[in-house]
Amino acid sequence: MAWQPFTPRGVAQFAATANTRLLLVQFFFALAAAAAVTWTFHAAWGGTLAQAVAALPERSEIRAGRLEWPDASPRLLAEGRCLSVSVDLEHSGALRGGAHVQLELGRTSVRIVSLFGYWDLPYPKEFIFALNRTEAWPWWGAWFPVILATVFIGTLAGLLAIWAVLSWFYAAPVWLLAFLADRAMGFPGAWRLSGAAQMPGALLFALGIGGYGLGIFDLVQGLVLWGAHFVLSWGYMIAGIWAVPRVERGGGNNPFTADAADPTSKTSPASKGNPFKSKE
Each residue of 187-224: pLDDT tens digit? Predict the structure, then answer.
């Protein structure tokens, strides 16, 4: 029975099982990955965001797409290993710490700075945001559990959808390789095998996310593990193809023999005596 995708034979068994069994196994792996992502968000970002909210001034708000900031700028609100939050109304870049991601509140936009550069998100002009400690701190306490639940459910649903889509892309080359290798597997089986082969990579992804939250890996090492989980998935796909049984080729019997004409006969109808001799 197909339950574990950690060996080539285990992955190959999913090619001949039902779709529901594969989806059930993927669901458990998605639970583990979603738990790792949610815990890492809480550990790496949650504390820093809470400190930033607690450091807000008594009066500040975003109105008509502009930040009304009464205190000095630039000012660092909170900083951790993974995240820092600061206010720099002119985006001067005077506060550039060592955090992996930096949120910088400007006069008309929030700037996200990371290893990949920066991205400016303008404030919406249709809404008013109370960016002061008096109103923001109770809001944060009430909505942070909801934010964590949203991260968990979004990661869970997103991974299941991504694995299904990737399986459709992987199924065609997997089926072609199985056909060239003379393996007994159709296209639906190739889709299931592709889905099962992604699970070891998903486990590596979850371990990488958890290791990043624990401080074992930095951002670059985490990205390397993220890329390596695709390579691991393809390795299991190829190994799984070779673990699928070969196509059985039936040996041809001589159609002109008596056994071939009548497969149920056990012996040839050889005469044991003179057929013209009368029986006594």
Answer: 999 999 999 999 999 999 999 999 998 888 888 888 89
- Identify the domain containing residue 214 by its residue range: 8-40+143-243
**ω before 74 within 30° of 0 (cis)?**
yes
Tokens representing residue 194 in the block: 């592709």
Inside any domain, residue 216: yes
Residue 162 lies in a domain: yes
Q: How far apart are CA 54 and CA 38, in angstroms?
A: 22
In this prediction, the residues of the chain whose per-residue pLDDT falls under 50 are: 252-272, 275-276, 278-280
Q: What is the pLDDT of residue 249?
A: 65
Beta-bridge mates of residue 61: 68, 130
| Residue 260: predicted pLDDT | 42
Domain match, 125 and 172 both: no
Q: Supply the angle between the helices 19-41 and 187-214 in degrees, to the nearest 10.
A: 20
Exposure string over 197-207, b if 16+ CB within 10 A, otherwise e? bbbbbbbbbbb
Asked if 188 and 100 sit in the same domain, the reply is no
